[in-house]
Amino acid sequence: MSPKHVVFKKVSRDKSVAVYMAKRDFVDHSDFVDPVDGVIVIDPVQLKGKKVYVMLSCTFRYGRQDMDVMGVAFRRDLFIVTRQVYPELQDKEKLTHTRIQQKLLHKLGDNAYPFFFEFPDNLPCSVSLQPGPNDVGKKCAVEFEVKAFCGENQDEKIDKQSSVRLTIRKIQFSPENTEVAPFADMTFEFLMSEKPLHVKLTLPKETFYHGEPVKANVEITNSSSRNIKDISLSVEQVTNVVLYSNDKYVKSVAKEETEDSVPSGTTLKKEYTLYPLLAYNKDRRGIALDGRLKHEDTNLASSSIVKQEVLKEVQGMLISYKVVLKMIASGEVSVEVPFKLMNPKSEPAPPSDSCCEAVACLSSFLSVLCSEPDDMVFEDFKRAYLKGVVYGDDDESPNNGTGLRNK
């Protein structure tokens, strides 16, 4: 393990506020979600008596920002919470929830102030539809953002020179894998054929992890008078846009076309391997990703898990996957089996009787246990940008500088 602990920073253009955060990705563990915590450093001289606020928001976008149909903008804030950081409303000790905050406050001095948010239980995870090489403007996405700004009050228009916007990502870990192996078992009958075609498609498990090959077992018993040919398998990603519309996007993210055939009266038993990877789908328009990051930072979107008593419409977009087996008889015959594509759990879930704050403290403590304040390394908080996307003034864009650069 590296003795250095990376802390991401971003500074406003006028240097009045700076935000420091220990991570940019926050995990939904199904039974709890990582809290959003960090520290804001202010310059009292630059503030000129103004207050400092920090905001956590979740926004659903559907198309470009300038799209407006009959007065309806294709953007909705699913969640917004704003808190005053300076002047502080409570003692710093009461607002400090994690060990990393303690270390940052110690290192950054008296003008540093902590902030802490908890996600509500009904929010979706980050997801975006990949733009094509020639697409411009904002795309369909569920985005999370931390924003720090100063003003006389939290409702006045935000001065972009005195504000910081940081795009974070909420991702989901896989729940415990079940022992059930999903399958589809179907029989097809044909005109002028006394006996049927029997097809069985089986997956070894219900949940696969990003980067893991998907193995599919195919068993075809052809008792019909038809000859089966052109057998192919694919992994299809299905994106349902459930807010504003009922649009559905179906994209093949892995495919194997074979010359395998099953003549009349014969049987085929074979295992096929598919590789649903973003590396094979770069620049393909409409592919859903786990947030708006560069290809090296992200992957195909994870399967959506909607918790009980949560409205699907609040999720913005729902992602699912299925393996589809196709073949040609007298016409096309297809069989499909759904499965989940997720991120694996990297650490065990906390004890059930632990409260959220205890979980947050434990998580942050373990991550910096071996680090002293001087062992922290500060890096600019910035993401790489997807090809073909034009970012506006209100976005965290390549031209929206951090104010500090690595030298």
TrEMBL record:
InterPro entries: Arrestin, Arrestin-like_C, Arrestin-like_N, Arrestin_C-like, Arrestin_N, Ig_E-set. Coiled coil: none annotated. Pfam families: Arrestin_C, Arrestin_N. Residues 193-346 form the Arrestin C-terminal-like domain. It comes from the Eukaryota. GO terms for molecular function: G protein-coupled receptor binding. GO terms for biological process: G protein-coupled receptor internalization; nervous system development; signal transduction. One of its GO terms (cellular component) is photoreceptor inner segment. Belongs to the arrestin family. This is S-arrestin. The lineage of its organism: Eukaryota, Metazoa, Chordata, Craniata, Vertebrata.
